[in-house]
Amino acid sequence: MATELDNIELRPARRKFLKSAAALATTLIAPGVILYKPGHASNTSSNIPRWGLLIDTNALSESDVDACVSACQREHGWESDPDSRTDAQWIRKVKLTDAESGHQRFLPMMCLHCENPPCVDVCPTGASFKRDDGIVLVNKHTCIGCRYCMMACPYKARSFIHEPLKDQLPVAPRGKGTVESCTLCVHRIDRDGSDAIPACAEAVNHADRKAIWFGDLHDPQSEISQRLQALGAVKLRADMGLNPGVRYQGL
What we know:
Radius of gyration: 17 Å
CATH topology: Alpha-Beta Plaits
Helix content: 10-25%
Largest sheet: 3 strands, mixed
CATH architecture: 2-Layer Sandwich
Number of domains: 1
């Protein structure tokens, strides 16, 4: 999965500047459109959560991952149209095959909401930004469609809107000429906090079986932190030092 981006040197000072600019930019909301709440003022208080997901691939079938994708489409009003140039990929199904045994497993791939997101580092306008709670977003009012962030993302988690859109949902503003990606269902998180359940998790979790955990990675008492402590998890492309907020078990 190595890419030409492996050698990009992340620039914390530049990221800090862009993050501040983006926090201001998020206050520019178009009439009738609900954008996301701007991040909190920057500080390192342990009271600020870092939201993340833990995905147990052993508990997911191919149909489960399909359900994750469908739930995200319904929640945010996007869909992949093979006849259109707009191929949205807020979340997609990835198939992994063991070369020796032929065993296959499936996992959902989305924006991993990195602690050190390269998409934010390369954005020239600050449209790509990370909130203090760890959620990485795109401000559609300041995105100029340069697609640098798409090239910088090692997870291929972003897509570009080529064509005019209709029937958008207020919780997920979209627009031609902009980049988009998983928001971790930020509208649910801003409404419900630690009680929020992202749409992908809601689609596959049941009373007798759970495959996706959502919660505060900074809180050692949270269910997601307790499971990470007990069982561990894989950080995809850990060699890049991005510290993603979405972790996988069973890989």
